[in-house]
Amino acid sequence: MTHSDVGQTGPDAVDPRQATKEQRAWYFYDWANSAYVTTTATVLFAPYLTVVAKEAGCPGQDSDLSCSTNLHVLGIPISPGSLAFYAVTFATILSAFVLPVVGALADRSAHQRRILGGFAWVGAVAASAMWFVQGDNWQLGVLLLLIANLCLGGSLVVYDAILCQIAGPDDRDRVSSRGWALGYLGGFILLAINLALVTAHDSLGLTKGEAVRWSLLTAGIWWGAFTLIPYFGLRDRAPLNVAPVEGSLVREAFGQLGNTLRHLRGFPHTLKFLLAYLFFNDGIQTVIGVSSVYGAEQLGFSTNQLIETILLVQLVAFGGALLFGRAARRFGARDVVLSSLVLWAGVVAIGFFLPRGQFGLWLGLAVLIGVVLGGSQALSRSMYSQLVPRGREAEYFSLYQACERGTSWFGTLLFGIVHQLTDSYRPAILALIVFFVLGGLILRTVDVRQGIRDAGNVEPAIV
């Protein structure tokens, strides 16, 4: 059977050997893009872009010092120290508008595999081109960051939607968890190599900036190269249940999007899940995002200790995703995710009481974060896939991605406000517990079986 065969419509139309082959290929996109997410987006690029911006604003000054000279973007003064965060915020907001259209286009196409590969390879080229960001060329860095992040979001919309095509209702928790697990493992391996490169740059005859640029290049190449596995291992499928809209493909995409938004209230449990996800995912992303600042400023840990912590979380998350996948097969995804939110609330409570300088206790907390991190995210994806109307998978997953990206600044805003009011990071970290409480309370009201029936999907044995 060739990749152009589009007659099959889902996992129920594929023999088990073909389904297993496609699932194994699908896993590797998590492995591929996690290199960019961990090495570039999470750890290295924001600090590096800040150094480049400071060089533009205050030439010749030590990058460890603050730069009071503003850069100007469209006439707006921007602090060099804030440039990277503003760029990420702009990309996040922009993606919230772009991704639903990408999803609608993907649902109407018989070539989702090609759309996935197209977004991935353009993003990988942009990520690799970050090698050329040096000196005071911050404009190129911002442009490449926008392209890479938008392409990552577009590829993930299609990637998540393909889960519905390659795995039946009873298999999705397992398949989603294995994908997340492999992603954490891949991210850990390349991040460990690159952090070793950056740490030992002097002994290798490199400047720190050169070591960072080599690391950025490897992340882009890794992303692009490993995308070949899902590209050649997945099959295209004909679109199903597409709402008829007259006009061009782009007009049809916007028409389908408008139709879905108008009729979303017909899927109340899908809506409630999305609302719950907005809260608890924002809490998860904020805890991960502020943990380095909390560890350094509040608890007094060194950069090397924080690097060790990041690697430990990545490694433990690999096992955590597999563990939660197994638990979901016995207890159901919703109850396991609810349990994970209790553990997340425990994480922030422990963080609040953690004594300064106790690195062993900090590593213990990192292990707990790793255990719940992969599992809660993997099972959220698989549970949502059950609630998505068939034929509109990519469009609904674009809403999933857009909701995540469009509101993921609430937690950091709350964290910043509480810190400003109290002049301490301890009450700021504790305040994040509200996201897990609200998310859990809303998730408890989601009747997953009824939501699956409303969406017209087959019910798994355990939900």
TrEMBL record:
<keyword id="KW-1133">Transmembrane helix</keyword>
<feature type="transmembrane region" description="Helical">
    <location>
        <begin position="115"/>
        <end position="134"/>
    </location>
</feature>
<keyword id="KW-0472">Membrane</keyword>
<feature type="transmembrane region" description="Helical">
    <location>
        <begin position="212"/>
        <end position="234"/>
    </location>
</feature>
<feature type="transmembrane region" description="Helical">
    <location>
        <begin position="424"/>
        <end position="443"/>
    </location>
</feature>
<dbReference type="Pfam" id="PF11700">
    <property type="entry name" value="ATG22"/>
</dbReference>
<feature type="transmembrane region" description="Helical">
    <location>
        <begin position="306"/>
        <end position="324"/>
    </location>
</feature>
<dbReference type="InterPro" id="IPR024671">
    <property type="entry name" value="Atg22-like"/>
</dbReference>
<keyword id="KW-0813">Transport</keyword>
<dbReference type="InterPro" id="IPR050495">
    <property type="entry name" value="ATG22/LtaA_families"/>
</dbReference>
<feature type="transmembrane region" description="Helical">
    <location>
        <begin position="360"/>
        <end position="379"/>
    </location>
</feature>
<dbReference type="InterPro" id="IPR036259">
    <property type="entry name" value="MFS_trans_sf"/>
</dbReference>
<feature type="transmembrane region" description="Helical">
    <location>
        <begin position="336"/>
        <end position="354"/>
    </location>
</feature>
<feature type="transmembrane region" description="Helical">
    <location>
        <begin position="274"/>
        <end position="294"/>
    </location>
</feature>
<feature type="transmembrane region" description="Helical">
    <location>
        <begin position="399"/>
        <end position="418"/>
    </location>
</feature>
<feature type="transmembrane region" description="Helical">
    <location>
        <begin position="83"/>
        <end position="103"/>
    </location>
</feature>
<feature type="transmembrane region" description="Helical">
    <location>
        <begin position="180"/>
        <end position="200"/>
    </location>
</feature>
<protein>
    <submittedName>
        <fullName>MFS transporter</fullName>
    </submittedName>
</protein>
<keyword id="KW-0812">Transmembrane</keyword>
<feature type="transmembrane region" description="Helical">
    <location>
        <begin position="140"/>
        <end position="159"/>
    </location>
</feature>
